[in-house]
Amino acid sequence: MRLLGTMRFNDKRHLEIGGCDTVELAKKYGTPLYVIDEALFRQNCQNYYRSFTEEYGTEVIYASKTLSNLAICTIVEQEGLGLDVVSGGELFTAAKARFPMERVYFHGNNKSPDELRLALDYKVGRIVVDNLYELELLNAIAGEKDTKASIILRLSPGVEAHTHEYIKTGQIDSKFGLAIENGMAMSAVMRSLELSNILLKGIHCHIGSQIFELASYAHAAEVMMNFVQKIFQETGYLAEELNLGGGLGIYYSEGDYPRSVKEYADILMSAVRAKAAEFDIPAPKVIVEPGRSISGPSGTTLYRIGAIKDIPGIRKYVSVDGGMSDNPRPALYKSKYEACLANRVNEEPIEQVSIAGKCCESGDMLIWDIKLPVITTGDILAISCTGAYNYSMSMNYNRLPRPAMVLVCEGKADLIVKREDYADIIRNDVMPQRLCNSRIKLASSSR
């Protein structure tokens, strides 16, 4: 497993993160356990701030869908980034963390009327409008509140990035955005300029996630700048803001070759500025929305190994006390990860095993065919790069409680998400009185 951030092997031959022994973390907080390397998370934020904001004046907003809680929102604010939210729940989390609402961008392809009202009540900086239905709905709600909603229109630029089918978003055939090619985008621009309670600030696109080919970003920027010019020519409106989304790929396992944030910034901004010069128009304020590339590498998940099943000549299955309930990405996207034995990190990997989760699904496999030291029940397995889309996509399938999360830094571990217990699992269950009455009658009749 590649060591990232503050990871190191200590003198006990244990994996250490943020100065904390992961074996001791597992003992104290239990497993599965999400461990967030605060220093690395902050460093990733700082890389974006330096490469985009300081170098080019670009606004960087963190995509909180990848990992969101009160502590994470607070760190993001402290590092000078804005916040991208996609639901009322993420917006409420930001508000409870006292995140400055003027630095919040509210995304989503089907925001409810209540969510839009909440966004207006909180006075979020921008609402990213995804479709014509939402545009009209937002105008009506803003009118009821006697206010104007500052919006950015989400467009589909027709750019298909090379990534997994389920995380491509920039092509025309997508549930997200208004396509430029078929005229929907221009219709939305014109309608936005007509509506009395809408203030159009700019346009947005997002071409996908886990992208390594930076040329895709440059092409998207050129397409969007061409459209900025077309809007100006046809309506006289010059977009002030150009939001180019996120999606920069990270290292998960062998074969991943991530590009640096600086390379990403340089190619994106060069494309925007070149087009602005070509059209002799002011370059719009550029906004980017990194998520995975900030939170992903900073997270590690610890598991305790239980059952081991060796099928001679076929495969050796090693089961852990978590699985798709805390990390559904391998089941959804065939995502690959690296791992090590946190309690025996220096031992030579000599046997090939497959890491199985405990859910009642054949597809609940975290890692297929990985070489590790000889494993015994009770060992602690650490899977790296689990900071993005693990906790945020976790679930209670099989009524499994969600894991706890700790933030580690300089030898100190702070609990930032409590572990769910069985009482949490049934907290929202409601027993109808008629079933209770039926139970009483059945008990009486059996006497």
From TrEMBL:
GO molecular function: diaminopimelate decarboxylase activity; pyridoxal phosphate binding
GO biological process, one term: lysine biosynthetic process via diaminopimelate
Occurrences of domain Orn/DAP/Arg decarboxylase 2 N-terminal (ranges): 49-295
Binding site for substrate: 292, 329, 333, 361, 389
Positions of pyridoxal 5'-phosphate binding: 247, 289-292, 389
Active-site residues, Swiss-Prot/TrEMBL: 360 (proton donor)
Entry-linked InterPro entries: Ala_racemase/Decarboxylase_C (IPR009006), DAP_deCOOHase_LysA (IPR002986), De-COase2_N (IPR022644), Orn/DAP/Arg_de-COase (IPR000183), PLP-binding_barrel (IPR029066)
N6-(pyridoxal phosphate)lysine found at: 65
Domain of life of the native organism: Bacteria
Record keywords: Amino-acid biosynthesis, Decarboxylase, Lyase, Lysine biosynthesis, Pyridoxal phosphate
UniProt signal peptide: none
Summary of the function given for this chain in its UniProt record: Specifically catalyzes the decarboxylation of meso-diaminopimelate (meso-DAP) to L-lysine.
Subunit record text: Homodimer.
NCBIfam families, per the entry: lysA
Protein name: Diaminopimelate decarboxylase
Organism: Desulforamulus reducens (strain ATCC BAA-1160 / DSM 100696 / MI-1) (Desulfotomaculum reducens)
Lineage of origin: Bacteria, Bacillati, Bacillota, Clostridia, Eubacteriales
